[in-house]
Specification:
Elements lengths: L1 H18 L2 H13 L14 H17 L5 H24 L5 H34 L4 H21 L1 H24 L1
Helix pairs in contact: 1-2, 1-4, 1-5, 1-6, 1-7, 2-3, 2-6, 4-5, 5-6, 5-7, 6-7
Protein name: DUF4126 domain-containing protein
Pfam family, one: DUF4126
Keywords: Membrane, Transmembrane, Transmembrane helix
């Protein structure tokens, strides 16, 4: 059961990385420093004050950057690989498996894959918003992404099974939308 809950936590936080890269890592840092969650041994750095200040600074810069027209589209380009890395790192940091290959492989496939799919969906949404509103609708999209990242991070920490269900539904919906765009 512990493995299942840690996977739910990791997947929920990874999906949140698809909306914002650093906010879920900051939420995990605060939760780990408060004792609500426990990262693996080699990820003890996640529960430190230097990590808090670095992740807080990065979160503020990332959130602020998404409210600047056209910078937000540039950030989406950078955020795609960064979200996969952050999703992999978060899933790997909470899933406790003895085999390093399985541990990191699972983190990459499940965590990185989930973060990448969500990031692809949000990137397409921002691109569509930029095309249809000349970028004026992007702050609304950014606000919704901030709320989604913060909310899903909180769910992943406090109600990981519910977060997993929401992530599965979100990924299925995004894959359906992405495949329908490919066909047209």
């Amino acid at each position: 059961m512990e493995l299942f809950l840690s996977l739910c936590l990791g997947i929920g936080l990874s999906a949140s990385c698809g909306f914002r890269v650093f906010l879920p890592m900051l939420a995990a840092n605060i939760a780990a420093m408060s004792g609500w969650i426990t990262p693996g041994e080699s990820f003890d750095w996640l529960a430190t004050w230097p990590a808090f200040f670095a992740l807080l600074s990065a979160s503020i810069a990332e959130i602020g950057g998404y409210y600047i027209p056209f910078i937000d589209n540039l950030l989406d380009t950078i955020a795609t690989p960064a979200a996969v890395i952050a999703g992999t790192l978060l899933t790997t940091s909470f899933v406790h498996i003895d085999s390093p290959v399985l541990h990191w492989g699972l983190g990459l496939m499940v965590g990185g894959g989930t973060a990448g799919i969500v990031q692809a969906g949000t990137g397409l949404l921002r691109l569509l918003s930029s095309k249809t509103t000349a970028g004026f609708g992007n702050p609304v999209v950014s606000t919704a992404e901030n709320v989604a990242s913060f909310g899903l991070s909180g769910l992943a920490i406090f109600l990981p099974i519910i977060a997993l269900v929401l992530v599965v539904l979100l990924v299925m919906w995004l894959l359906k939308k992405l495949l329908s765009l490919k066909k047209s």
